[in-house]
Amino acid sequence: MPERLRVKKFINRPQDAVNETVAGALLAHEDMLAPITGAPRALRATGAPRAGKVGLVIGGGSGHEPGFFGYVGRGLADAVAIGNVFAAPPPDPILAATLAADGGAGVLHIFGNFSGDLMNFEMAAEMAAARGVPVRTIVTTDDIASAPVDTRAARRGVAGNVFVFKVAGAACDRMLPLETCAGLALRANQRCYTMGIALEPGASVDSQKPSFRLGAGDMEIGVGVHGERGIARAPLASADGAADLIVDRILDEMRPAEGDRVALLVNSLGGTPKMELYILNRRLRERLRARGVQVHRTLIGHYYTSLDMAGVSITALHLDEELTALIDHPCHSPAWTQP
Fold first, then answer.
1. Please, what is the Cα angle at 27 between 26 and 28, to 5 degrees?
2. d(CA 35, CA 24)
3. How many CB atoms lie within 10 A of CB 4?
4. The sheet that has 39-45: what strands, in order across it?
């Protein structure tokens, strides 16, 4: 089978892809999402802001759909800033989102640990503070393959964002104060563990070429969500073998006690269908049950992608009583709705 040198995509002009994605999302979810005037790449929840409530602002580059706008809505984020593909949003849309989310109780920023996001969210927070809006920041660092445990602060923030957004959004929805919401989001991040494996790289929107080369009999271990190579390459494994590789790394770091509970995210990186995700989930549940770990909630599907990469990431959130209640809190957004 010849190597694919160019991947076909349903796009018009590459330079219009992000704006057209946002336009399509607004039309599909007009009951949940609304544009922010003067900021084309910033959206708010239709019910935001709410007086007296901490505002939650999330954001990052495009290419992760339904991240990030998929997590805007009741019980989740109040506003989002959207960048180019795999690129941080500039400070101006982040500021616009922050002001649109402000209900008078301060605003919480949550985003992944990437240099552009760190710089631009910091600038926007300073501009918001100059306008009298206090901002707290939580940077997600759940990718266990990207740095050793003793340098966790250097790790990337990937699909664990989904659980951190959920915990923070629930805390804000319960009208808790800013410092409490930030502390709960931080705890969720510290108890989130994610690792990914790719079978095929994703293809750039601009060039429509794969971001790296991967042999027909190989898989890439520890991939990022911006088209980065992984930390290792190995012969292609079975579904059970791939699940074992990931769950071994997660359990080794999490070190759960018998009877502990987790929330589990079996996430397609873009090109992996639900059939394969369910096969992987079967093995993950077998392994967790053998370890005495209870799965409290499972999400399976496209939650935090990397364009059309064929691959999976597994995220486990090590729950405690408070985090469990926040994960179970009702929410309504394009990507996650529960009563």
1. 95
2. 12
3. 13
4. 33-36, 39-45, 79-85, 55-62, 107-112, 135-140
pLDDT at 1: 43
pLDDT tens, position by position, 170-184: 999 999 999 999 999
Report how far apart, in Å, the C-alpha atoms of 2 and of each of 5, 203, 271 are: 9, 16, 19
Residues carrying an active site annotation:
64, 226
Question: Domains in the chain, please, with CATH?
Answer: 14-190 (3.40.50.10440), 192-319 (3.30.1180.20)
The pTM (predicted TM-score) of the whole model is 0.97
Nearest to 277 by CA among 190, 159, 163: 159
pLDDT in tens, 233-247: 999 999 999 999 999
Structural contact between residues 313 and 196, judged by C-beta atoms closer than 8 angstroms: yes
